[in-house]
Amino acid sequence: MRRVLIADDSPSNREFLRTVLAHEGWTVEEAGDGLTAVAMATAAPPDLILLDIQMPGADGYETLRALRAQAALETIPIFAITAYAMDGDEQRGLAAGFTAYLTKPLTRRRLLAALS
């Protein structure tokens, strides 16, 4: 079974992602901040990480760098899930190492299309 780690400080955003992905057969794990996400991914690498950019403590970019610095996590797809949708934001995210860049509000259809 495929495992996804959702890192987002918003419980409602995590609930939406959890509901959609669980319905699609994913095992879902959740972290409310970047530091917890790094610890969870290090302990048990998931098949996919969905990472909010704007979080307290370590933001999504700091979290991404910490994840990518670990050999066991280098190749795991990490999707940015973010409200940052200005010109250049997506290019900055992809250049930083995100596998995909999905802007909020995210729909079920857009999320599933990105996963296929």
Q: What would the keywords be for this entry?
A:
globular, 116 residues, alpha/beta, Rossmann fold, 5 helices, single chain, 5-stranded parallel beta sheet, 5 strands
Account of the 3D structure:
The chain is an alpha/beta fold and 116 residues long. The chain has a single domain (3-111), classed as Response regulator (Rossmann fold, 3-Layer(aba) Sandwich), CATH 3.40.50.2300. The chain has 5 helices and 5 strands; from the N terminus they run βαβαβαβαβα. The protein has helices spanning 11-23, 34-43, 60-68, 89-96, 108-115, and strands spanning 3-7, 27-31, 48-52, 78-82, 100-103. It has a 5-stranded parallel β-sheet, with helices on both faces.
End-to-end distance? 16 Å
What composes the largest sheet?
Answer: 5 strands, parallel
In percent, how much strand structure appears in the residues? 15-25%
The H/E string reads EHEHEHEHEH
**Number of spatially distinct domains:** 1
Mass-distribution shape: globular
Question: Numbering strands along the chain, what is their spatial order in the largest sheet?
Answer: 2-1-3-4-5
Q: In terms of structural class, how would the helical and strand content be classed?
A: alpha/beta
- Can you name the CATH architecture? 3-Layer(aba) Sandwich
Assigned CATH class:
Alpha Beta
In DSSP terms, counting alpha (H) and pi (I) runs of 4 or more, how many helices? 5
Q: State the CATH superfamily name.
A: Response regulator
How many whole angstroms does the radius of gyration measure?
Answer: 13 Å
CATH names the topology as Rossmann fold
Number of strands: 5
Low-confidence stretches: none
Mean pLDDT level: 94
Helix content: 40-55%
